[in-house]
Amino acid sequence: MKYDLVPFTRLVEHFERLPGIGKKSAQRLAFHILGLPDETVNDFADSLVDAKKKIRYCKICKNLTDGEICEICSDGSRDDSTVCVVENAKDALSIERSGEYKGKYHVLHGLISPMDGIGPDSLYIKDLVLRAGNGNIKEVIMATNPTVEGEATALYIAKLLKPLGIKVTRLAYGIPVGGHLEYADNITLYRAIEGRSEI
Amino acid sequence: MKYDLVPFTRLVEHFERLPGIGKKSAQRLAFHILGLPDETVNDFADSLVDAKKKIRYCKICKNLTDGEICEICSDGSRDDSTVCVVENAKDALSIERSGEYKGKYHVLHGLISPMDGIGPDSLYIKDLVLRAGNGNIKEVIMATNPTVEGEATALYIAKLLKPLGIKVTRLAYGIPVGGHLEYADNITLYRAIEGRSEI
Fold it and tell me: pTM of this prediction?
């Protein structure tokens, strides 16, 4: 473009850098912002800075919190003896949304991936082992994604925890509820047969 | 959700209010923000406030500018005698991107729509008539969208400008380049036949 409206282009570029937002969407969002009342835009800007500033990792489980200890860790009514290990805070939120799980969490903030230079030391694995060592944790549920990295990370952690006498389990594999057999891939089907249960 | 991370929820809500962004996307964007460096987030926040504060309407054509007069209006090399009337700044940008048009613009910031309570006085129509009255404008190209409101607005403006001896034209209707006849709707086809040209 020959004509450049600097403040506008800058805003478009920021939107464009967000995941899943292309050039056209970024422009649409920027035009939308210009049409909003001043207070709304100021509050949006403030919420960005505020979230980034206030939100940190819980001292115990490394989940997101705006305090020292997250609400789940400080909730006495939840089962202390079960810890669900997830890749990131998003996954913890998904499990929490199901409403089924009443134990605690441990967020790794990544998966072991030697190809990307991410070793066990770049993740919060040591913290989990320490937590398991001096707590009353009886079971650790590995809820990493069923990818190569997710599997490798789960096995690695299982090997560290088993000597401590902790039961390590894995989320069930199988056909998604409402899914169709014909659309399931071979490995999923294989795992579903392997993990069959009596009715 | 039982647990509420206030700064996070607030950020998610702001993203959710943007057009085309649902609850899940908003959450994904908020998580993405938390993973960005502090400076990037601060700069994003600043670009929001900055764009909203600095960008206003050009005194002449009502297009967006960060000065008094926009770059297109102050560009002496562009044809002063032709003005292209568009619904909003987005449309002006689209026409500008085609690279074909060398005249000036006039942005209405809306279309006449009695159903929504938008009459001619809520738009920048008076400014266009004034501009046409004391300038050297010879032709006004109506480039409003081919909707009921776009058509009505174009006709309304044409009626005001014709007595001033100004030629009022309309963008051509027809089959989009690369489009297929079988997918064109009846009205578009009718207009394409009506507007046929010799080859």
Answer: 0.82
